[in-house]
Amino acid sequence: MVKVKFCGITRREDIDQAIALGADAIGFNFFAGSPRAVTVIEAVDLAQAIPPSIWKVGVFVNQTRAEIKDAIAKVKLDFLQFHGDEEPEFCRSFDQMRIIRAVRLGGGNEASQLQQAMQVAEYILFDRHHRTQFGGTGEAVGDDLLGEAFGMVPKERVILAGGLTPENVAEKVRRFCPFGVDVASGVEEAPGRKSAQRMAAFMQNAREASV
Fold this sequence. Notes:
By secondary structure, this protein is an alpha/beta fold.
């Protein structure tokens, strides 16, 4: 069954909804330039409600080793998700941490990016390339481009993101059969504020499509 990750969580009520729905992972965005950013102190408070069965994922964009280690230690993260221009050696340097490497499709040089990502990460997250932003744009990746990328990475290592919504997630899951799906803006009523109804619809549609 497809794994579901709700990302860019900033409120306790959204944590509670994700838990109630049976989410597999919850993402905290530590990139200050994101409208869904949280501080480490805020994430510590939010993470207290998350049971061990749900992965806590820290999302980072070109941040320092000290910042990342601080979040690991205080929030007790299960995964690091690198979403910027981090070098492979940097991604590998966090001992015993599980890694998700985002690859932004549509900007060119995908084959090289995917090859590097597979060397450092347990899972590869497919997102949409944007000229000035690192994710969370709500822009979908075209099916042709996704098809090419899925041809280069085992599907059981792919987390699909980029423009997913309750309305389109079932079709994407049925067509590409990824390990997981990741949603942020697609279930929001405003940046950083999730809609309980859209979260529930996303979960139901994703799971039913993978049965």
